[in-house]
Write a structure and sequence with these properties.
Largest interface: A-B, 48 and 45 residues
Number of helices of chain B: 12
CATH topology of chain A: Rossmann fold
Largest sheet of chain B: 7 strands, mixed
Order of helices and strands of chain A: HHEHHHEHEEEHHEHEHHH
Structural class of chain A: alpha/beta
Structural class of chain B: alpha/beta
CATH class of chain A: Alpha Beta
Strand content of chain B: 15-25%
Oligomer: heterodimer
Number of strands of chain B: 14
Number of helices of chain A: 12
Helix content of chain A: 40-55%
Strand order of the largest sheet of chain A: 1-2-3-7-6
Helix content of chain B: 25-40%
Chain lengths: 334, 331
């Protein structure tokens, strides 16, 4: 792990990136446990294995910059600045959740940090991200929007409609394709013809492919593209080669019919983004093993505390069921 | 009072609101120099420029999705959907995204956008350019739905829609764009959820939406000549629906026909009839009758198309049946 242009020289920045990656992994481990112990309603999609993508990109953004997220969205939410407590409360359908329990895992949003929300329609947020970038143009702001989506979403027509408009109007949006190799339960090579980056290039959009397991490489590229998008040189396209450790969702346990255990083992043991970055941090003398362990331990306690809080937190009062349908009607069914 | 066309009324509403609020913009196909195929937007690009009257590629889901994201982040898009039939193309962005933004975020985000489109058959445009699909969106919680019945309503409701913080869908009747009506010079708005009693009567209530208001008014004229006093009501918005005004009239006259140009089955007429049955049952002397468009794709041939929509004569005929206590059976 030795990018040609190290994007960060500040120890704190490196350690924050590491901490954010660990926070995502730890969040997901806890969310999975909540599912397995039947304490979480519904199911959820784990981001574990893809941490370097969300963190590498979001660390290149300002709070005022926007992102749109996906059904596999916890990683983006954490990386853009969300707190564990409100996130776990949302996953458990509690009143103090980011969406007062009305969105859940697949719709978690944190507009205070510019996260316009996860989206349960694959590819459903591509218009929203492009529209957020359109707002920046209309209002003369220099905000940049990053649209996260998976390789599966590249099969949706909406993507090509909005990339066309973004390119025509030079909108400050970065399309970030997290290619984890699987479109739900199907290998990506079975659903994607040709090259994914070439599709963006067909619209005249500059496209890059990057190792999504290398947080420094992701961050280096993201910083450059975000800065250029801010200057009006957008849009851009990134294809981030990554891997999801879990199945399509937490209940997708027996998945050998589409993916081998050997393949999963190889990615986890040899290409884990957190292990790789940790090794680099220690080798470069940026952090000692003890400091790394202290970060890990602190995050673990934070997560446990937040889970405990969320489990005991209050559900929304039933009177909230017909609130928030419209902005100007307190109770729609009253 | 001066009279202007519905098309001019829409144009005025847009111009006034765009002058008032610099975050508004129009987006859609051929909205700028072309001013849409109906020439409704002529002159706007000259005043507001191409940054605020934005021509898009022919990509309805794309520009609708873009509008949702723009609305969520601080602008107020006014989306122009050339034909109401194209609403099927944008359903995900309208119904899964815009309609649910406020609710799914627990009230923290909203999508204040207006979708302007149209409805109405008998323009010889066949099944994919003639549908009246407002019931589809009225079914989805989170969307407001306005159905202007004249140039006056078109202006007042559109101005209200643009100021509303929720997604609003307005269906204009494409056959009425050149119809004139008195519209005040001075600024006015028409509130949502306030039905308009167009004609007072005592024997039967005719509830009509959009151009069916005119159909009901003509039916009322026919009936008046026969000594039947019909009350005509225009709900103006079906979400929110002014139930109180409709129910008060039903309780007064005891007979109701609901006329709407959407397909009759599972539609607006059924919904309004059902609410009246539930809440005014003991005041009724006859079943509430639904009159929607025929449950067939809109045919091209004039000989066929004209018989698919309710006419004043058909409304009057049904009114007579209700008045004579003749049992009404569905065809």
């Amino acid at each position: 792990m030795s990018p040609a242009n190290p994007p960060r020289t500040n120890t704190e920045d490196y350690l924050r990136m590491y901490r954010q990656m660990v926070r995502i992994r730890t969040f997901e481990d806890n969310a999975n446990q909540l599912y397995l112990s039947a304490k979480m309603p519904g199911l959820t999609h784990m981001y574990s294995g893809e941490e370097a993508v969300a963190v590498g990109i979001c660390e290149a953004l300002k709070v005022t910059d926007k992102i749109t997220s996906t059904h596999r969205g916890h990683g983006h939410c954490v990386a853009k600045g969300a707190e564990f407590k409100e996130m776990f409360c949302e996953l458990l359908g509690k009143e103090e959740g980011y969406c007062r329990g009305k969105g859940g895992s697949m719709h978690i949003a944190d507009q205070s940090n510019g996260n316009l929300g996860a989206n349960a329609i694959v590819g459903g947020s591509m218009g929203i991200a492009t529209g957020a970038a359109f707002t920046a143009r209309q209002l003369g702001k220099d905000d940049v929007t990053v649209c996260f989506f998976g390789d599966g979403a590249t099969a949706q027509g909406l993507m090509y409609e909005v990339m066309n408009m973004a390119a025509l109007w030079k909108l400050p949006v970065i399309y970030a394709c997290e290619n984890n190799g699987y479109s739900e339960y199907t290998r990506t090579e079975e659903i994607a013809a040709g090259s994914i980056t070439a599709r963006a290039e067909a619209f005249g959009i500059e496209a890059h492919q990057v190792d999504g397991q290398d947080v420094l490489a992701v961050n280096d590229l993201a910083q450059k593209l975000v800065a250029r998008a801010r200057q009006g040189e957008g849009p851009f396209f990134m294809e981030l080669m990554t891997y999801r450790y879990h199945g399509h969702h937490v209940g997708d346990i027996n998945r050998e019919y589409y993916r081998s255990k050997e393949e999963e083992k190889d990615w986890k043991e040899n290409r884990d983004p957190i292990t790789r970055f940790r090794t680099w941090l220690v080798a470069e003398g940026i952090a000692s093993e003890e400091e790394i362990e202290a970060i890990n331990a602190k995050v673990k306690i934070d997560a446990t505390t937040a889970v405990e809080y969320a489990l005991n937190a209050k559900y929304p009062d039933p009177v909230e069921v017909d609130m928030h349908v419209f902005t100007d009607v307190k109770h729609t069914l009253a | 009072m001066r009279e202007i066309t519905l098309s001019q009324a829409v144009n005025e509403a847009l111009a006034e609101e765009m002058r008032r609020d610099p975050t508004t913009f129009i987006i859609g196909e051929d909205v700028a120099e072309a001013g849409t195929p109906f020439k409704i937007l002529s002159g706007l690009v000259e005043e507001f420029g191409t940054n605020r009257v934005v021509d898009t590629p022919i990509a309805e889901p794309g520009f609708m999705g873009l509008a949702v994201g723009a609305a969520m982040t601080g602008t107020r898009p006014i989306v122009d959907l050339m034909f109401g039939d194209f609403i099927f193309l944008i359903m995900d962005q309208l119904c899964n995204q815009a309609a649910k933004t406020h609710y799914m975020s627990g009230g923290k985000m909203s999508a204040p956008l207006v979708l302007r489109t149209n409805l109405g058959a008998t323009r010889r445009s066949a099944a994919q350019h003639s549908q009246s699909l407002h019931a589809l969106v009225a079914h989805i919680p989170g969307l407001k739905v306005a159905l202007p019945s004249s140039a006056y309503e078109a202006k007042g409701l559109l101005k209200t829609a643009i100021r509303d913080d929720n997604p609003v869908v307005i269906f204009e009747d494409k056959l009425m764009y050149q119809d004139k009506a008195p519209v005040p010079e001075e600024e006015f708005l028409i509130p949502f959820g306030a039905a308009n009693v167009k004609r007072h009567g005592t024997d039967i209530t005719l509830i009509g939406t959009s151009s069916m208001v005119q159909v009901c008014e003509k039916a009322a004229e026919i009936l008046a000549a026969e000594g039947i006093s019909a009350e005509v009501i225009d709900p103006r918005t079906i979400v929110p629906l002014d139930e109180d005004t409709l129910l008060a009239s039903a309780r007064k006259t005891s007979r109701v026909i609901v006329v709407d140009e959407g397909h009759q089955s599972y539609g607006v007429t059924g919904e309004i009839a059902s609410r009246i049955n539930e809440k005014a049952f003991y005041h009724l002397d006859a079943p509430v009758l639904r009159m929607g468009a025929m449950d067939v794709p809109v045919p091209f041939s004039p000989a066929l198309e004209d018989i698919t929509v309710p006419t004043p004569e058909a409304v009057a005929k049904n009114a007579r049946k209700l008045m004579s206590r003749e049992m009404i059976h569905a065809a």
